[in-house]
TrEMBL record:
PANTHER family: ACYL-COA DEHYDROGENASE, ISOVALERYL-COA DEHYDROGENASE, MITOCHONDRIAL-RELATED. Residues 4-114 form the Acyl-CoA dehydrogenase/oxidase N-terminal domain. It comes from the Bacteria. Residues 118-217 form the Acyl-CoA oxidase/dehydrogenase middle domain. Pfam families: Acyl-CoA_dh_1, Acyl-CoA_dh_M, Acyl-CoA_dh_N. InterPro entries: Acyl-CoA_DH_CS, Acyl-CoA_Oxase/DH_mid-dom, Acyl-CoA_Oxase/DH_mid-dom_sf, AcylCo_DH-like_C, AcylCo_DH/oxidase_C, AcylCoA_DH/ox_N, AcylCoA_DH/ox_N_sf, AcylCoA_DH/oxidase_NM_dom_sf. Belongs to the acyl-CoA dehydrogenase family. This is Acyl-CoA dehydrogenase family protein. Gene3D superfamilies: Acyl-CoA dehydrogenase/oxidase, N-terminal domain (1.10.540.10), Butyryl-CoA Dehydrogenase, subunit A, domain 2 (2.40.110.10), Butyryl-CoA Dehydrogenase, subunit A, domain 3 (1.20.140.10). Keywords: FAD, Flavoprotein.
């Protein structure tokens, strides 16, 4: 897709958000129903096809454009990127590492929205330390694989229809353990696979977060992504860099929304006979908020460009995720301060944004993990990769 076409797509999504989503956010948040009409409109706009290669019916967008879209969606309604981010991770893994049969079978249906993807990684005893997973997919006498175990905190886990599940195909592998880890493809409705329940969260209630159970699920030997076991961690880590950039871009969108809500409120709210925007204390808050949003966006886009160039970017993607997520928490709190008491009531959007911001700090690898990744890369002499040496 040419640059002008990509810019036109971003602008089209911006218009969609402004005209069709923003006026409905309060109503959508008040409803308990899953927003099927919103999802259908996102499918119609091609948002489920954005990372699928063109030869399989997708748009094949670059990482920087993907990041720009995540920001636009989050700036309208923060739930929107969550409906497609894990779906895009599934599409990316299959596009980059799947066999031709896997690509032909699944990618066109993921692009059309017929299938919705979810990626199942986390377990009760394995969050950031994914090499500690216990879910297994082991060969049976008939040549099939038998999938046993469970996953928790799976975004879109109930609504998805195609799952990529991180498993151990060789539990004895220990040097390192990642050599015995693979990614399996599991379709909804496969006997033995069930959604055990949903987690109730303090925000993002419309984005289902599920527990999955695999009770002796029978899979074909061709269910392993790429057809060869033992490459799951490498496949995951390659794509998770893009996922972290997407999370960071979504956090920028939240920060941008909090800033704009604060600017609008500051212009309208009066104290001591003048709009509070005239008070220097409020102006200082607004200035800091804007600077932090812009700085986070710049880092996110730099990480996106590095990823698009095919260079190693675990360090800069971690930086982008760290800075953008912490920014969203700081800016949403500043927005509550600008609003005063009004920021603490649900009739104003910043109350919701303040509750939503922490998810970006703990998802896609906690920020403490990001700091360790960054420090290790720096100590290994990779600072030059980011122009720091």
């Amino acid at each position: 897709m040419h640059q002008e076409d990509e810019d036109a797509l971003v602008e089209a999504i911006h218009r969609f958000v402004v005209k069709e989503i923003k006026p409905r956010v309060a109503q959508l948040e008040a409803q308990d129903e899953y927003p099927h009409d919103v999802i259908a409109r996102m499918v119609e706009l091609g948002l489920f096809a954005i990372v699928v290669p063109e030869q399989y019916g997708g748009l094949g967008l670059s990482v920087p454009v993907y990041a720009r879209l995540m920001e636009e969606l989050a700036a309208g309604w923060t739930s929107l990127p969550s409906f497609i981010n894990s779906h895009c991770s599934v599409s990316s893994i299959l596009a980059r590492f799947g066999t031709e049969a896997q690509k032909s079978r699944y990618l066109p249906r993921l692009a059309s929205g017929e299938l919705r993807g979810a990626i199942a990684l986390t377990e009760p005893n394995a969050g950031s330390d994914l090499q500690a997973i216990r879910t297994t997919a082991l060969p049976a006498e008939d040549g099939s694989l038998r999938l046993r175990g469970g996953k928790i905190f799976i975004t879109n886990g109930a609504q998805a229809s195609l799952y990529l599940v991180l498993v151990k195909t060789d539990p004895s592998a220990a040097t390192p353990a990642k050599g015995g880890i693979s990614i399996c493809i599991v379709e909804k409705g496969t006997p033995g696979f069930s959604v055990a329940g949903l987690f109730h969260k303090m925000a993002f209630k419309h984005v289902d977060t599920a527990e999955l159970v695999f009770d002796d699920v029978k899979l074909g030997a061709d269910a392993i992504v790429g057809g060869v076991p033992g490459h799951g961690m490498a496949q995951l880590l390659d794509v998770i860099e893009t996922g972290r950039i997407a999370i960071a871009a979504s956090a920028v969108g939240l920060g941008r929304s909090a800033l704009n809500a604060s600017l609008e409120f500051a212009r309208q709210r009066e104290t001591f006979g003048v709009p509070i925007a005239n008070h220097q204390a409020v102006q200082c808050l607004l200035a800091e908020m804007a600077a932090k949003v812009m700085a986070a966006r710049a880092l996110v886009m730099e990480a996106a460009r590095e990823k698009q160039q095919g260079r190693r970017c675990d360090m800069i993607a971690g930086m982008a995720k760290l800075i953008a997520s912490e920014m969203s928490a700081e800016v949403s709190l500043a927005a509550v301060r600008v609003h005063g008491g009004y920021g603490y009531v649900s009739e104003f959007p910043v109350e919701r944004l303040y509750r939503e911001a922490p998810i970006y700090i703990v998802t896609e690898g906690t920020n403490e993990i990001q700091k360790l990744v960054i420090a290790r890369r720096l100590l290994a002499g990779d600072g030059a990769l980011c122009g720091l040496a």
